[in-house]
């Protein structure tokens, strides 16, 4: 159940990052964005943000697929992608200063740590870190 939940969470995150990428590109092409002051700079900023989020979406979906197939490299890729995303949010929270923390950013940062914690649950970690001989013997029993 926990392994399935981790895989589902990773798929949801991958699709969320994909939707965010597409949304950023969509609003960068909107008429309101083109009519605003310094529209070229704003559009460029949205395109840069989309270019930053897009690899996370691609690698997140690849990691979810590998998790679904029970691959150890999928566990590692998922861990790296989710830890990097959490680190970016933690850095953003620290960069804004401790004097007046944005509670939405704090909540979002704590929520972003959930996939990392789920990957380290003993049952999930043991499933992906099992010995190759165990895998062969499980297939023989099936």
Key descriptive features of the protein:
single chain, 142 residues, mainly alpha, 8 helices, globular
Verbal overview:
There is one protein chain. The chain is an all-alpha fold and 142 residues long. The chain has one domain. Helices cover 85% and strands 0% of the residues. The chain contains eight helices and no strands. Helix 1 runs antiparallel to helix 3. The longest helix is centred in the middle third of the chain and has 30 residues. The mean pLDDT is 88.
Topology:
Elements: H1 2-28, H2 31-35, H3 39-68, H4 72-96, H5 103-112, H6 114-119, H7 122-128, H8 132-141
Short précis:
The chain has one domain (2-141).
**Domains counted in the coordinates: how many?**
1
Sheet with the most strands, sense and barrel status: none
Mean pLDDT: 88
Strand content: under 5%
Helix content: over 70%
| Residue runs with pLDDT of under 50 for 5 or more positions | none
Rg calculated over all Cα atoms: 19 Å
Broad structural category = mainly alpha
């Amino acid at each position: 159940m926990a392994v399935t939940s981790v895989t589902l969470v990773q798929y949801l995150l991958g699709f969320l990052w994909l939707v965010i990428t597409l949304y950023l590109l969509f609003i960068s092409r909107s008429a309101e964005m083109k009519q605003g002051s310094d529209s070229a700079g704003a559009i460029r900023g949205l395109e840069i943000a989309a270019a930053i989020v897009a690899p996370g979406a691609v690698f997140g979906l690849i990691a979810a697929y590998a998790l679904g197939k029970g691959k150890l490299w999928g566990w590692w890729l998922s861990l790296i992608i989710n830890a990097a995303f959490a680190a970016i949010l933690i850095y953003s929270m620290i960069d804004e200063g401790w004097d007046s923390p944005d509670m939405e950013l704090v909540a979002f940062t704590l929520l972003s740590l959930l996939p990392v914690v789920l990957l380290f649950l003993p049952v999930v970690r043991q499933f992906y870190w099992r010995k190759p001989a165990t895998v062969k013997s499980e297939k023989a029993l099936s």
